[in-house]
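Subject: Predicted fold for Helix-turn-helix domain-containing protein, 78 residues

User T.R. writes:
Posting the sequence so we have a shared reference for the thread.
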Amino acid sequence: MNRQEKLIDLLNREFLSRQEAIEYLGISKQCFHSLVNRGKITKINKGSAVLFYRYEIESRKQDSNMLRKKYRPFQMDK
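User M.O. replies:
I've generated the structure tokens; pasting them so everyone works from the same file.
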């Protein structure tokens, strides 16, 4: 594996693009942007690239599932 492939692998393991994060969380773009604007999700800018920490997105998904079960027990997970 050359250096560029290692760097791409690192990026894929540690970060998500905006679209990947939205799809992973299963929320609308508006909801996602609201979370970012309220500081609930950290946005990383590097030039024209915008990335999000994978661990934050995964943690957010886990928290939202827990809260959904607690406050909306009647709603079935799909």
